[in-house]
Amino acid sequence: MADKVMIPARKGKAVVVDKGQSIRIINTYGSQVVDTWIYNLHDLSEFQSNEHTRAALLKLQFEPGDFVYTNFRRPIAKVEQDTSPGVHDMLMAACDKYRYQLLGCTEFHDSCTDNLANGMKEIGYEVHETPSPINIFMNIPWTTKGDLTIDPPVTEPGDYIQFRAMMDCIFAFSACPQDILPTNGVDGEITDAHFQIF
Fold it and tell me: Does the structure show a pLDDT above 70 at 99?
């Protein structure tokens, strides 16, 4: 198994994952949400799509054995393992400068939208829009009436989720910098996370 690669706190990282390889996303310190995007390496107009995945699975979130589908309705990754309680979010958009403005920020604030663009740029790719991410480890409970809340993650240090690439992919990550709401825990502390490819 390859060495762990750090997703720096508040920042983004992207990596190529070949078809058949697995990637493990690790909540190293236990309460860090990792926004995750998966792109077709050979055509960035095809990417993991939460709405298409929900339609295929008829579920609000996946579990081991399920596939993640693209906007072209093809499986791009398979959920192989999940040592966390299995609480992830496929409803919320990535944070951006507009989100922080609505929360009262008057100065620059790191965001998952910027982290996606910067992580992709670091490995030589450019994205012009921000698809809705898989918010790994994010806890967004819902009610039968359709109400949502933003609660702290329920993960423990070292919990991980593992995907297998069903095509040549780029996985892009953001160690979510949300420190105003309890997205990353009640104390708002943003930490590093890690991934491994094997």
Answer: yes
